[in-house]
Structures are given as structure tokens and as C-alpha cells.
Amino acid sequence: MLLLSLLVVAFTLYSPTPLVQSHYNWSPSSSSSSPSTFQSEWRPARATYYAATDPRDVVGGACGYGDLERTGYGKATAGLSTVLFDKGQICGACFEVRCVEDLRWCIPGTSIIVTATNFCAPNYGFEVDGGGHCNPPNAHFVLPIEAFEKIAIWKASNMPIQYRRIKCRKEGGVRFTMGGAGIFLSVLVSNVAGAGDIVAAKIKGSRTGWLPMGRNWGQNWHINADLKNQPLSFEITSSDGVTLTSYNVAPKNWNFGQTFEGKQFGS
Fold it and tell me: Does Lyase show up as a keyword for this record (predicted)?
């Protein structure tokens, strides 16, 4: 069985008990999606699973979402190999996955939808066809056993599958979790519908203009600016070129560790 490799990141998430609040107005710039982002055709890959013996084993991951149950992703998640992970850009994207080619183990007529939340690191001590499941150039998904068993019998282990990227459907609005300290502000962007992955983010205080944020890791975006005691607005752009602006998402008295909810793509 392939164990899911969690990317160890030297940053601290400041959201142990997120408080989701909603303070927004919004305006989307577009509702069209790029044909290169979503796929109608199925592509070949393989999948393995992991069965966590402790709930902490499935918390977080290389995309930085923290507790996947609390943040709404649950067990419908996947760790992706290097060729799919795209250095973390793919975090938040959604895929439909189905089992193929093995009538002994596949559950016919079934598929699952998963969100990319983690990275399956390569193991160069093994050949790509001899244990190095996530080594380039392999397209590989590592699924929680709860998701794997919806499409195949668990004894199948390393299964041939097909996948295609699809639009994400999420309950509620995009969530912005405030982390950092002092003038360092880190914002985790999660629960993103549509393309699911964010390629650019900006933030605006009531006393500032729009300030571009840099990608820290996964879907954590950061900026060095003193934005305390100001209501905050966010502008995010997804990989299909759609920009969503949510005004006054966080109130003037926002604090580190809180989570606020903006409008949603496609709503």
C-alpha cells in the first residue's frame, strides 16, 4: 500500500477554531471558463488508497487546508503525483475519477468527485513501475479508503483509473482564514467553486488601495502590510480567468484565527 506523503511545511496555521462570518458585497468579472481548464475527455492514471489509523493522519496536507473535515472537504479528497500537482497550483481543483479495465475489482457504473488537497511525493528509490507510484511521469491519485471503496474493492490496491477535471460545486461562499502576526498577514482561501484553484489574490483595507498578495504555499496567500482595524475586501482570480471581488468580507474588528465568508464563483 502506498502511504500518503504529507509535505512538511514550516508555517503555522492560525485557525484552530475557525469562526465563519459573512460580511460581503460582490461583483464577478466574468462567468465563462477556459476550455483548457475543464476536460470532457477521460485520461488514464492509477490510484491507491490510504487508511488512517488516527484522525490526525488525514488532517491538513500540502495545500494547507488544515482539518479537512472542519473545512468541509471531508473524505472526498486526493493527493496528486508530481505531474498533476503542478507545484501546488492545482490545490482546490476538482476531478471525477472512475475505475476501469479490471472487472474483478471495479464497481461498475460508479465514479467519485474529489478535491485536490495534498501532494504524493515521488520515491526515487523505486522505479516508476516498481513501487514509485508517484514518480514522474506517472499520473497518480492517492485516495482515502472511504473514497476508493466507492469505485473499487479495497483488495485491488494499485488500480488503473480514468480521470477528468470538472467544475467544483461547494456549499456556501469562498472562505478566507486569517493567519499571521503583526504586519505579516497570511490568508488561506478555501471552499472555492468553479475552477477551484486560485492563481492571483488581492486584498484591500478601508485605508488602502488594492494590494497584490503572493502565494506562500498551496492556497495560502500572504502580504506584509498593517491592515488591522480596517474592514477587508478580497479579489481572487481562478485558473479559468474568472475574477471575483468580495467587498468588506472581514469587519473592522477582525482578528487572526478567524474565518470569514465571501460570495461564491458562479452564484
Answer: no
Domains 43-166 and 174-262 share a fold: no
Domain ranges of the chain: 43-166, 174-262
Per residue in 68-84, pLDDT (tens digit) is 888 888 889 999 999 99
Q: 43-166: which CATH topology?
A: Barwin-like endoglucanases (2.40.40)
Q: In what order do the strands lie in the sheet with 198-205?
A: 20-22, 259-261, 175-181, 184-190, 220-224, 210-217, 198-205, 232-238, 243-250, 25-28
Q: Which homologous superfamily is 174-262 in?
A: Expansin, cellulose-binding-like domain (2.60.40.760)
**Model's pTM, two decimal places?**
0.83
